[in-house]
Amino acid sequence: MLSKHLLVAWAFFDLCLMGAGILSLVLSFVWQEDNLLRNLTYSTFDLNIGRILGIVLLATSLLSVFLIILRGKRPLVIVNWLLLLDAVAILSVATFIWMYTLHERINYHAVFGRQSNATKIKVQDVLQCCGYFNATDEVAFGGNFCPDQAAAIVANSFCVTPIVAFADSVLNNVFSTVYGFMAIVIGLFLSTMCIMKKRQEAERFERIDAKQGGRGLV
């Protein structure tokens, strides 16, 4: 007979995994809304990866509920294989984001350079800067803060610092949260292993009991 505490622990971690999947899905759609600095920070590729991770975690959570009610060892083995795949996905996504933050100044130079002049002008007005590394680097003239080259030189304020500061804060929170999903996966994996062990013990005693003609061990 499985301990109620063990089943509660397993259910808790499974609900947490479901919550992690929902969180990834919801934020991937919410962050797609029009927001100047956020759209500069994330690409469509990044948001699609977030959706895929959310679907994977949510699918694992729902499948594990179905598999846990089945008898035998094999369904639990499948659950743990799914959790191992989740762990690989989580570590891959979080590490990709973390590695991107190691070279943010250069990476966002390329991102800023790909923007249209209209978008650059909006960014420059919001952040009150002209150009990326200097007043002539990827600068777009227009708007209120940087209407021409003379204003750019006088301003002596460049976009690299505020862009990287915003992106660094957001991305650090994202990869820390995604790495945190690993605690949920590990907890659910260990809970499943414990249930598997308890079921093996119960099956062993049932076989012993059957050999004794159903009289029990005493």
State the distance separating the first and last CA atoms. Answer: 18 Å
Would you count the extended β strands for me?
Answer: 0
How many domains make up the coordinates?
Answer: 1
Order of helices and strands: HHHHHHHH
Name the average pLDDT. 89
What is the share of helical residues?
over 70%
Please summarize the sheet with the most strands.
none
Oligomeric organization of the protein chains: single chain
**Alpha-beta content class:** mainly alpha
> Which consecutive residue ranges, at least 5 long each, have pLDDT under 50?
none
Counted by DSSP, the helix tally is 8
From the spread of the alpha carbons, the general shape counts as rod-shaped
From the alpha-carbon coordinates, what is the Rg to the nearest angstrom? Answer: 26 Å
The percent range for strand residues is under 5%
Molecular structure report:
The protein is mainly α and 218 residues long. It has one domain (4-201). Helix content is 77%, strand content 0%. The protein contains eight helices and no strands. It has helices spanning 4-30, 36-41, 44-68, 74-101, 104-114, 117-127, 149-155, 160-211. The longest helix is centred in the last third of the chain and has 52 residues, at 160-211. It is rod-shaped, with a radius of gyration of 26 Å.
